[in-house]
Amino acid sequence: MTCPSQDAACRKAAGEPRDAEAVAAKCPGLAMAARLDAGFRDLLAAYHRRIWGGGTIPLKYKYLMALATAVTGREKERALLEANKALRCGATADEIRETLEMCVWLGGSPLLVEMVGPVMRFVAKRLATATERRDA
């Protein structure tokens, strides 16, 4: 089981919304569901809270899984978003690199050019910026 206070801090650092309206504002799928039916949006928001709001897998690892699905789905913007959330929840560059290596192993070498390079450049830049802020 995950440490609730650790995941709460991670959720806050990652900018995770708590209520249905805030979740819908950050999630295009929920925003579309809201246009169809507020009840449907609320149902999906409840499912979002179930997936992201607890359980036995710490949020850092959930974000690494989300990163892997974004990379194998060749969704660059979402991959960068998930990498950022994983970093905010304490993932290291090595953990992200290993996740990306698994993606290449499972999804083929074209992922190296299309996805791994851009994500690793983002991670390096994000970590360098964080180090500069800390050292300032």
Overview of this protein structure:
By secondary structure, the chain is mostly helical. It folds into two domains: about 5-50, no CATH class; about 60-135, AhpD-like (Up-down Bundle). It has eight helices and no strands. It has helices at about 5-15, 20-25, 30-35, 40-50, 60-70, 75-90, 95-105, 110-135. Helix 3 (about 30-35) packs antiparallel against helix 4 (about 40-50), helix 6 packs parallel to helix 8 and helix 7 (about 95-105) packs antiparallel against helix 8 (about 110-135). The longest helix is centred in the C-terminal third of the chain and has 26 residues, at about 110-135. It is globular. The termini are far apart. The model is unreliable at about 1-5 (pLDDT under 50).
The CATH homology group name of the largest domain: AhpD-like
Main CATH class of the largest domain: Mainly Alpha
How many domains is the backbone divided into? 2
Major beta-sheet overview:
none
CATH architecture of the largest domain: Up-down Bundle
Query: What portion of the residues fall into strands of 2 or more residues?
Result: under 5%
What integer value in Å does the Rg equal? 16 Å
Instruction: Flag low-confidence runs.
Output: 1-5
Structural class: mainly alpha
Shape: globular
Q: Can you give the mean pLDDT?
A: 85
CATH topology of the largest domain: AhpD-like
- The total strand number stands at 0
Which key terms come to mind for this protein?
136 residues, disordered N terminus, 2 domains, mainly alpha, AhpD-like, 8 helices
